[in-house]
Design a protein that fits this description.
single chain; about 230 residues; alpha+beta; five-stranded antiparallel β-sheet; 3 helices; 13 strands; about 30% helix
């Protein structure tokens, strides 16, 4: 007498395909009932080999182990998701640097101008970084060279004045960089702009947390936050 392989297949499916706990338990009970029946009705002259019985018992134990492992992994995933949500929530109200090239210029109450911070991410240290700020028409309103910029993320500030010391009109500007090493060779870089975290939402797929930056900045993931200001 042999155990119905379809039962074994269904039991094994319970571990990998996520059968409901009740159905999985019923399959295990059916498996044990069939195994006991097989032992009771086996041919005394040709009994089941120990290895065969061990193999069949191992299958049901494997299923139970997989289900327990899945439960453990699900628990760990839920904890990680909760931790990520908590971490993201702690950023609400904070200013951050994220990939982007926008600079906002405004006017203080005393009439002086100000600009939002901006930054750069470098693959390796740069001997010189040329910063260029342009208006919507593409005209250069400010240019500056910064020497000895370290690898990684570096933030910069600007007072919203052009190179002649005059305040530029309030509005949105773009920043670009030209990073070079000591030999004048170009270094890969990424422009970063200022934004403020206004809220936190899970992604549509539910597998990650997204930060709501509002307005034209939209949403970003936690790993896109390069620096907290």
């Amino acid at each position: 007498m042999n155990i119905d392989t379809s039962v074994l297949s269904n039991v094994n499916g319970g571990g990998s395909n996520g059968l409901p706990a009740r159905q999985s338990e019923e399959l295990r009970e059916s498996f044990m009932t069939l195994l006991i029946t097989q032992l009771e009705n086996q041919d005394p002259l040709n009994p089941m080999e120990n290895s065969e019985m061990t193999s069949q018992l191992a299958q049901i134990n494997t299923v139970s182990g997989i289900e327990e492992l899945n439960d453990t992994l699900n628990g760990i995933t839920e904890q990680m998701d909760a931790s990520q949500m908590l971490q993201a929530s702690g950023l609400i109200g904070n200013a951050v640097l994220v990939p982007g090239n926008q600079v906002k210029v405004g006017t203080n109450e005393d009439g002086s101008s100000y600009a939002t911070p901006f930054g750069i991410e470098l693959d390796k240290p740069a001997d010189n970084v040329e910063i260029t700020v342009t208006n919507k028409a593409g005209e250069v309103v400010y240019r500056n060279n910064v020497e000895g910029v370290s690898e990684g993320v570096e933030s910069f500030s600007w007072d919203g004045q052009n190179n002649d010391g005059a305040a530029v009109p309030a509005g949105s500007y773009n920043v670009s960089y030209k990073a070079t090493d000591a030999d004048g060779e170009k270094i890969e870089s990424e422009a970063l702009n200022y934004a403020q975290v206004q809220g936190v939402t899970p992604s549509a797929s539910g597998d990650e947390v997204r930060l709501d930056l509002g307005g034209i900045y939209g949403q970003v993931t936690l790993d896109q936050v390069k620096q907290i200001l």
